[in-house]
Every structure is written in C-alpha cells, then in structure tokens.
Design a protein that fits this description.
heterodimer; A: 4-stranded antiparallel β-sheet; 5 helices; globular; B: 9-stranded antiparallel β-sheet; 23 strands; 50% strand
C-alpha cells in the first residue's frame, strides 16, 4: 500500500445492476459511493508518489493539485490569468488506439462577480480601447483591477501555428449547473463564474499526447479566427 | 422565418422557432434527410397496493408530454460549433450542439430536481420520433457488447391473465449502456449514451430514453423504499439534478455500425486533459 486494489474492488462492486441503475436502498447507494471515494483517495496517493518519482521532484507539492470535480477545468488550480504574457498550456492525452480529433471546451471567465458593474465598466473600457485602436482582452483600471474582457484569445498548437477557436457564451442553465456542482462537491459557491466556453479542435495520436497554448491575442486587421457570436433568440411575439 | 438550420458542416439540424423544437435532420454528404422530432415527457406510475410501479416494476399510469416553455430558443453560431439552448420547463434544460467536422448531434440535458409537490412520482423520458418504418423492432446493447434485437409486444407474457388493467401495460424499458438503434429499408437511426439509462421503442420509428426518475412508492421487489434520493446543500435538501449527454446520428443502411463502435469507445474514453501554465520558457 498505497495501491489501487481498493479502487479495483469498488469499481467491480459498482458493476452490479443496482449500482449502474440506482435501484437500491439509499444506504446501499451511499455505500457504493463511499467505497469508490476511499478507493479514489488511495489511488490518488499512488499517482502522487509515482509522478514525484517520475519527475524526480523531491517535494510532493510539485506533482500538481487534486481536483475532485467531474470536469477538472473548473478547478481553481487549472485557472490561469493570461495577463503579462502567461500562457495556459493544455495537454491532451488520447487513451484510444486510433488518432482522434475532438472539440475541447474549457471555461473562460471574467474577474467581476456583478454583471451590471462588469457590463458597465467593460462598455466604457471597450469604447476607450476601440478609440485607442489597440484592442486588449484586458483592461486594468485603478479602481477595479483587471477585467478579463474575454476578448480575442489565441490558441496555438505545439508547432506555434494558430488554430481556429471560438468563444461560446455560457448561458444561465449551464451557470446554474456549474454552481450546483461546485456546491455539491466543494460545499461552496465558486469564487468567480465563467462567462464563456473557449472551444477549439484538438487532435492526438493513438495512445499519445498533444499540447496547446492559449494566450491573450491582439486584434487583427482581418476578422480574428474566434469570430464573435451571432446570437439569435426567437421571441414569442415575433 | 420559422425554420432555423443549425450546424457549421455537412450535418444540419432544423428547428422550428414557433414550436421551439427540433423538426428535421439533413446530412448533405450522405444525402440522408429525415423528419426528426424530439420531445420530453414523464410517466406517472400505478400506485395500487397490489402492484405499485417502482424501481423494478414499470407500470405507467399515463404519460404527460412537456411542451417547451415560452422561453426563447437561443441559437449560438460560430466556426467550430453551433448551439441551441432550449428551456423545456423550470427543471429541464437542453443544449443541442453540432460540431464542425462531426456528423452527429450532441444533446446535453439537465434534468431536476423533479418536483413532487403534487405527490406524484415521475419517470422522465426524452422521445425521438421519425417516420421510419421499423416494424416495432429495435436494437439495444448488452453491457456495451453486441446489440441485441428487441421486438416490442403489447403485453408481457409473464403477467397472469386478468391482472392487466387497461391503463398499465407492463413495459420494461431495457437498460442501455452504450446505445440503441432502429432501422428501416434505407436508414439507421442510432442513439449513443454517456451513462446507463432506460430505453425502449414502443411505436414504429420512435425511440425513447428514460433519463431520470423520482418515485414515491416501492414496488415490493426488494428495494423496500421509494427511489427518492435527495442532496442537501447548507441544510436545504432537494431532489437530484442530473446532467448528461446523448448523441444522435442517422446513416444510410449498413453504415452506422462503424460510428457506433468507434464513437462509443470515444464516449467511454474521452481525451484526458491536464493544465499547466507557461511564463516565458518556464513551465510551472
């Protein structure tokens, strides 16, 4: 120990049709979940120690942070503020034996919690930056700190070529769900709420990796690849 | 205009703005064109002491279709994907996505908490209706392996005669782990799922998936309590909300198995993502 036997046993138990379809007493359902959680905890230790030995890093802390959410891109440790030239690096691993291409969607966020302040400030700044013709996805003001206007971000592949990406507004229902999961798993509301999905097409070789770099982009003379959204809402009266 | 076409590639989904729902499926590469309607409804189960509907015994006492709310149908378009947001009601929300380069439609559903203030347990299904002549035959996987042929018959043989009241036909949805499909003389309509759900086809050209349920009675077959799980956040308990996806694709006859097999694996083993940040050349 630590090893993954307990996780294997818990997963084996969870193959029972009661676990798969939820047709069991509440305490039995809780027991399935508890065994999986104990198994997960122990397996996480195995991953931590093996990563530490692979990367030969002495302290355990380097081996990354744990994320209990179903979608790890929601975890704080996977958030990067793209100001000052930082890049978010996304490593994609393909566990199947054939080359795949799939759309990756990760949440992009704004610094402000209150939409009203956000939209007011961003409108003012947006006009200013358009006037200055130097569109920036960030605008920092002495009062409110930096606002991520979620403008043009650029996605590049491992060769440095820019690839097509798209910002998709995250509408209410998704936000409600995102908050729900944060509450259910972390017991607290998320610090900030994402406003967009950043979507781009990623490919990876069989049983292989690929790396993508996400950075803040500059407005181009031509339309940027991540075109802004055209939103159509059919209204009842229309 | 009433008709809205969605999809950045060969696959186009046709929505009706007035009815606020899906009405058609067109694939310009395979020349498949089919009327497809998708809707939500829920079954209410029998509650008589002799044999109540419960975890194992499914004795629907009526079905209630759910019309999409008067809320707007919101379409988001872009170079990589198009999305359609539909609010069916206060506890069902659906996002339909069509990706560039992909020839299937992705339906993300958010269902719950299922209301029980009316004292009625509900079993929520989504229905996909077409004009295909499928002769009451459909195919469901058995634990992700072969697809087995199922033929829907009006009455289950196992019920002793006379126990059948007109309203409640014993109709056991199959457990779907990978997916289900129907076919006619020239097309196959396949649905793949991302978790185990109930599935059946009780009318020609029609598929239904049971996505979520919240019951208030036990059927006396061993669970000995109603399936009414709740989750409590800050001492406020409510029924479970589930989020999931299923994928729909219509192919010319004989061309669907390849997609079912390969994409089924890709649903089960998605890309694994890891995040880190890079400042200059320093990776941290």
């Amino acid at each position: 120990r630590p090893n993954t036997d307990y996780l294997a046993d818990a997963l084996a138990l969870a193959q029972h049709h009661d676990a798969v379809s939820g047709t069991s007493k509440q305490h039995v359902a809780n027991d399935y979940a508890k065994r999986l959680s104990i198994g997960y905890e122990e397996a996480a230790k195995v991953v931590e120690t093996s990563l530490a030995s692979i990367t030969r890093s002495s302290s355990k802390t380097d081996s990354g942070k744990k994320c209990l959410l179903l979608n790890i891109s929601y975890c704080p440790s996977s958030e990067v503020d793209l100001s000052n030239g930082k890049n978010l690096v996304v490593v994609v691993y393909n566990p199947l034996g054939w080359k795949r291409e799939d759309i990756i969607r990760i949440p992009a966020r704004s610094e402000m919690n209150s939409t009203v302040m956000y939209s007011f400030i961003s409108t003012v700044h947006w006009l200013l930056s358009l006037l200055l013709l130097s569109y920036k996805p960030f605008v920092c003001s002495p009062i409110l700190g930096c606002l991520v206007i979620d403008g043009n971000v650029i996605v590049k592949d491992h060769r440095g070529n820019e690839i097509e990406s798209q910002l998709v507004p995250l509408l209410n229902a998704s936000l409600a769900i995102r908050n729900y999961y944060s509450m259910a798993y972390l017991g607290k509301f998320p610090s900030v709420t994402p406003k967009y999905w950043l979507a781009f097409s990623a490919s990876a070789p069989p049983l292989g990796l690929n790396t993508y770099f996400i950075s803040s982009g500059k407005q181009k003379a031509i339309a940027a690849p991540s075109k802004n959204q055209v939103v159509y809402s059919s209204k009842e009266k229309q | 205009k009433d008709v809205i076409e969605v999809g950045p590639g060969d696959l186009k989904l046709v929505f009706s703005a007035k009815q606020r729902k899906l009405i058609g499926y067109i694939n310009s590469r395979t020349k498949v064109k089919e009327t497809v309607r998708q809707s939500y409804s829920f079954y209410t189960g029998a509650t008589d002491i002799k044999q109540a509907s419960g975890a194992y015994i499914f004795r629907p006492n009526g079905t209630n279709s759910l019309k999409p709310d008067h809320q707007a149908l919101t379409v988001l378009r872009g170079p990589i994907l198009d999305e359609v947001h539909q609010r069916i009601n206060s506890w069902i929300y659906q996002i339909t996505r069509v990706y560039k380069g992909k020839e299937h439609a992705e339906f993300e559903f958010i269902v719950g908490p299922i209301p029980i203030s009316d004292g009625i347990g509900k079993e929520v299904v989504t229905k996909i209706l077409t004009h295909m002549k499928t002769s009451k035959t459909f195919y469901t996987d058995s634990s992700g392996r072969d697809f087995l042929e199922r033929v829907y018959s009006k009455l289950s043989k196992r019920l002793e005669p006379g126990s059948e009241s007109a309203c409640c036909r014993k109709l056991l949805p199959c457990m779907i782990n990978l997916g289900m499909y129907v076919k006619d003389d020239d097309k196959e309509l396949s649905v793949l799922v991302d978790r185990s759900v109930g599935g059946a086809s009780i009318k020609d050209g029609e598929l239904e998936l049971m996505l979520h349920r919240r019951l208030l009675h036990d059927d006396g077959r061993g669970v000995a309590e109603a399936l009414n799980e709740t989750v409590c956040v800050q001492n406020k308990c409510s029924g479970l909300t589930i989020v999931g996806k299923y994928y729909l694709r219509i192919d010319p006859l004989g061309e669907a198995a390849k997609w079912r097999r390969s994409f089924g694996q890709e649903i089960y083993s998605p890309f694994l993502l890891a995040f880190t940040q890079q400042e200059g050349d320093r990776w941290t």
